[in-house]
Amino acid sequence: MLTPVTRYHGKPRLVDLHRALEAMARHCREHGVARLAMPRIGCGLDLLQWGEVRAALEEAFRGSGVTVTVYSL
Q1: What is the DSSP letter of 42?
Q2: Is 7 inside any structural domain?
Q3: H or E element: which one contains 4?
Q4: What does each of the 73 residues of the chain score in pLDDT, given as a tens digit?
Q5: Which pTM was predicted?
Q6: In the chain, helix, strand, coil percent, each to 5?
Q7: Angle between the N-to-C axes of helices 50-61 and 14-30, in degrees from 0 to 180, rounded to the nearest 10
Q8: Residue 5 phi, psi dihedral angles, 5° rounding
């Protein structure tokens, strides 16, 4: 079991985002999810840079067969 490192009142670190995206990609593969849509997570109030988040998304979902669509709100 993973120990949470980010609290609801804290800002996520890029390493936390990587872990979450890898878990999401694994969940999608295990449950047959073929398409996923999301906003630019971590880039608003959390202050992560979109270029780093995009790279983390691409790495986590590479070869997964899941099509990820990211929307700007």
Answers
A1: T
A2: no
A3: none
A4: 555 555 556 778 899 899 999 999 999 999 999 999 999 998 888 889 999 999 999 999 999 999 999 998 7
A5: 0.80
A6: 40, 15, 45
A7: 30
A8: -110, -15
CATH of residue 46's domain is 3.40.220.10
- Number of domains the chain is built from: 1
* pLDDT given at position 4: 55
Long-range contacts of 25-33 (CB under 8 A, 24+ apart): 25/60, 25/61, 25/64, 25/66, 28/61, 28/64, 28/66, 29/64, 29/65, 29/66, 33/66
Examine residue 3 and state whether it is found in any structural domain, yes or no.
no
